[in-house]
Specification:
single chain, about 150 residues, mainly alpha, two-stranded antiparallel sheet, about 5% strand
């Protein structure tokens, strides 16, 4: 299996696992806290969608502009809280549509990317990173939340 195929396969596998876990919760429960003081399932989806979009957009800047913007939000917890609050105004269908569209856009982009991109490495905040390592980080982020969802059931 080549590197491109491996990246795409790993991303799809993680996404399928996430969808499987989410399907175990009735949609009418998606706005209830999953445990005391915790996120709702809507909040989980908003959080995952945002951070995958953030990582994808950074990567797309690298491909299209030749450099990846450095830095992260100053207060990640505050950002996560505000994202969840903003998306409370949207329907569950809108939240799901954003989740699915973001993933499909990322997969389509990576599918079109020439194979040689999957051999490259670049510097990001003092570390050498490959495409596989970059997207594996986001897969692991999602996998952490998949484990949390499993523990909630």
């Amino acid at each position: 299996m080549d590197r491109k195929e491996k990246v795409l396969e790993n991303m799809q596998k993680t996404r399928d696992e996430l969808l499987q876990e989410l399907s175990r919760f009735p949609e009418e429960k998606w706005d209830e806290p999953v445990s005391q003081g915790k996120w709702t399932l809507r909040g989980f989806l908003v959080h995952i969608t945002h951070w995958n979009r953030w990582g994808f957009n950074k990567f797309r800047c690298l491909v299209e502009q030749g450099e990846m913007p450095l830095g992260q939000p100053q207060d990640i917890d505050l950002l996560n809280e505000r994202l969840a609050q903003t998306w409370e105004l949207h329907s569950i269908e809108d939240v799901k549509a954003d989740f699915h569209c973001q993933f499909q856009e990322m997969m389509d982009y990576l599918q079109r990317l020439p194979e040689n991109w999957f051999e490259k490495k670049w510097q990001y905040e003092g570390k050498e990173v490959s495409v596989e390592e970059w997207f594996d980080f986001f897969n692991e982020h999602d996998a952490t939340h998949i484990r949390q969802l499993r523990d909630m059931r």
